[in-house]
């Protein structure tokens, strides 16, 4: 991945985090190199900086698997240094410092074609809105979503394609049925709606009406037998 010096050290959160020591080191390498500078050496320098930054955000010495994951984000997924740093920053600020979780987010961004910090920031805003709307529908306050809860929410919004009003309705029905929050129970409701091709709340109302009609019909047949 080729990168000019001004691209590496200009603007963005990445520039704020890079220490003076690393800036001088990279600058010297560029001065000593030819016009076709050693791309592998520069890439190594950028990754070294990213690993340093990762340790600051995660508050620990990185393991080999941590290092391999961050290298994978940069080398294989093709994330820019700014984007990798924003990934680490937003996950850490939301209390998710597990590299397994961070890698899931990175893969999700890659699958969705997110290549800039601006795109990732908008995705994070949508994610926060979805998560806290669902938690609110369950009456859960003063905490963020657990990793397993995020998985459910992403399933409902991304895989099932449900809007928040439909998800909120499933949460309300969960509370009414079992009198406590349950992502598992809400998931059974939403899975049935998904298989029934629900796209709007009016589709839910039509399913309710059809269910009630069938229920009344069975009651009528039963009364006739007696």
Give a summary of the structure in a few sentences:
The protein has helices at 5-9, 12-17, 20-32, 39-58, 64-75, 81-93, 99-111, 117-137, 147-159, 164-178, 183-195, 201-225. By secondary structure, it is mostly helical. The radius of gyration is 25 Å and the shape is elongated.
Morphology: elongated
What share of residues is helical?
A: over 70%
Tell me the number of structural domains: 2
**In sequence order, what are the helices and strands, one letter per element?**
HHHHHHHHHHHH
Distance between the termini: 80 Å
Assess the beta-strand content as a share of residues: under 5%
Tally of individual helices: 12
Rg to the nearest angstrom? 25 Å
Mean pLDDT, nearest integer?
83
Number of strands: 0
Uncertain regions spanning at least 5 consecutive residues: 1-12
**Oligomeric state as shown:** single chain
Helix/strand/pairing category: mainly alpha
Q: Biggest sheet, in brief? A: none
Task: Summarize the SSE layout with pairings.
Elements: H1 5-9, H2 12-17, H3 20-32, H4 39-58, H5 64-75, H6 81-93, H7 99-111, H8 117-137, H9 147-159, H10 164-178, H11 183-195, H12 201-225
Helix pairs in contact: 3-4, 4-5, 4-6, 5-7, 6-7, 6-8, 8-9, 8-10, 10-11
Protein model, in words:
The structure is a single chain. Helix 10 packs across helix 11 (183-195). The protein has two domains: 1-115, no CATH class; 121-226, no CATH class. It has helices at 5-9, 12-17, 20-32, 39-58, 64-75, 81-93, 99-111, 117-137, 147-159, 164-178, 183-195, 201-225. The protein is built from twelve helices and no strands. 22% of the residues are buried. The model is unreliable at 1-12 (pLDDT under 50). By secondary structure, the protein is an all-alpha fold.
């Amino acid at each position: 991945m080729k990168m000019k010096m001004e691209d590496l050290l200009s603007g963005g959160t990445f520039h704020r985090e890079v220490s003076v020591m690393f800036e001088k080191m990279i600058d010297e390498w560029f001065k000593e190199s030819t016009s076709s500078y050693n791309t592998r050496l520069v890439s190594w320098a950028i990754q070294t900086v990213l690993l340093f930054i990762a340790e600051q955000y995660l508050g620990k010495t990185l393991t080999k698997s941590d290092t391999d994951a961050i290298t994978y984000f940069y080398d294989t997924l093709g994330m820019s240094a700014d984007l990798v740093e924003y990934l680490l920053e937003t996950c850490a600020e939301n209390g998710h410092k597990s590299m397994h979780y961070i890698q899931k987010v990175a893969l999700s961004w890659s699958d969705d074609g997110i290549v800039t910090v601006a795109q990732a920031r908008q995705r994070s805003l949508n994610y926060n809105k979805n998560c806290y709307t669902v938690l609110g529908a369950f009456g859960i306050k003063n905490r963020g979503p657990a990793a397993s809860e995020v998985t459910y929410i992403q399933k409902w919004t991304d895989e099932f394609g449900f809007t928040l009003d439909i998800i909120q309705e499933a949460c309300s029905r969960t509370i009414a049925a079992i009198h406590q929050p349950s992502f598992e129970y809400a998931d059974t409701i939403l899975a049935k709606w998904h298989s029934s091709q629900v796209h709007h709340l009016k589709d839910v109302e039509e399913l309710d009406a059809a269910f009630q009609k069938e229920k009344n019909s069975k009651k009528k047949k039963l009364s006739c037998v007696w």
